[in-house]
Structures are given as structure tokens and as C-alpha cells.
Design goal:
By secondary structure, this protein is of the alpha/beta class. Helix content is 26%, strand content 26%. The chain has 6 helices and 9 strands, in the order ββαβααβαβαββββα.
């Protein structure tokens, strides 16, 4: 697997609240580019297979949400959760989970995940194409560190959740990560 040094150039289709929009659904479409999200910023990204799925909803997203202030104290500008879901699903999932600090970024057509080399088939679960579970530290568009779960493959019979968690990324930022993951690197771990 090739090591990617920069986040890929993608346009994300998002929905934003806009009180000037009439009716009971005051939202409008807004395109966000990779530069809008990453340029000049230190960003922690974690990607997961799907909104409303068990591990993603019970642990992965909630733990990043819970540790948000600790990440900010270490100079992180934002935490972004990427999933191959549309903007409507991501919005409703965020409401249900109570996520208001982590930015939920819809990768509706999987373009970002594909360009990252992380798009996998999950036909065995009836999901279709989804993102593999990983996290990364991005500084001004450059990927400084990636934690990729083991077993990256189409239709993997398991859903590993060992190294893309919030605590591993926080330990890395603090310089207290376990042996083997503490040195700055763009290489995959997992």
C-alpha cells in the first residue's frame, strides 16, 4: 500500500443551517473543499464504516467527542469524523449521539475514502462501499501520522478497532504512545 503524504483534493457536499431558508428545514447545501477543512490547520481525522453502526456510535465518535478539549489544548484546531454516508444521515447521527464538537463530514460518494486508499467493499454486510477504520493527524494538508486498523481488505469478516481510537491519537500527540507508534511518521500503523 502506498503512503499518501497529502490529503486528496475533494469537494464534500455538506448541509449547513441557514435561518434565511424558509420552512421547517432551514438548511442549504454548501460545498467544502479539502483546503477549506485542512489548509493552515492542525486537524485530527478519524474515519469509520458507518453512522449508526454499533462500535462507531458507542465508542469511536463518543470518545473523540469526550476528549475534544484535551485535543484542543494540544493545538488541534478541529476533529473531523469521515464516513461514507450522506449529509442527512450524518446530521441525524450527530443529533442522536450528541456530537456537537466533532465535525461530521459526509463522504457521500466515497471519493475522499477512495483517494485515501481506504474505500473497501462491505457487501458481506449489505453496506456496499465504505471507509476502512483509521485515524490521522493532518497539518496544513500534510499527513503526519496515520493509524490504520489491521486487516484492510474488501469484505473483511471483522471490524477491527485497535488503533484508530481517540486515546491512541491523544497519546501520540502527548508523546506517550506505546512503543512503535511514537515517532513522527506518515507510515501506516496496523
Amino acid at each position: 500500500m502506498a503512503v499518501i503524504e497529502k490529503v486528496p483534493s475533494v469537494v464534500f457536499k455538506t448541509r449547513v443551517r441557514d435561518e434565511s431558508v424558509p420552512g421547517p428545514n432551514p438548511f442549504r447545501w454548501q460545498d467544502l473543499t479539502t483546503d477549506d477543512i485542512f489548509k493552515g490547520k492542525k486537524v485530527v481525522v478519524f474515519s469509520l464504516p458507518g453512522a449508526f453502526t454499533p462500535t462507531c456510535s458507542s465508542n469511536h465518535l463518543p470518545r473523540y467527542e469526550a476528549l475534544y478539549e484535551e485535543f484542543k489544548a494540544l493545538g488541534v484546531d478541529s476533529i473531523v469524523c469521515v464516513s461514507v454516508n450522506d449529509a442527512f444521515v450524518m446530521f441525524q447521527w450527530g443529533k442522536q449521539v450528541g456530537a456537537d464538537k466533532v465535525f461530521l463530514l459526509p463522504d457521500g460518494n466515497g471519493e475522499f475514502s477512495r483517494k485515501m486508499g481506504m474505500l473497501v467493499e462491505k457487501d458481506n454486510l449489505g453496506f456496499g462501499a465504505r471507509s476502512w477504520r483509521y485515524s490521522m493527524l493532518v497539518n496544513d494538508g500534510t499527513i503526519e501520522k496515520m493509524f490504520v486498523e489491521p486487516g484492510l481488505e474488501d469484505n473483511c469478516p471483522t471490524d477491527p478497532f485497535e488503533c484508530s481510537d481517540a486515546d491512541t491519537m491523544l497519546a501520540y500527540l502527548k508523546g506517550t504512545a506505546p512503543a512503535g507508534v511514537s515517532a513522527p511518521s506518515r507510515e501506516f500503523v496496523g
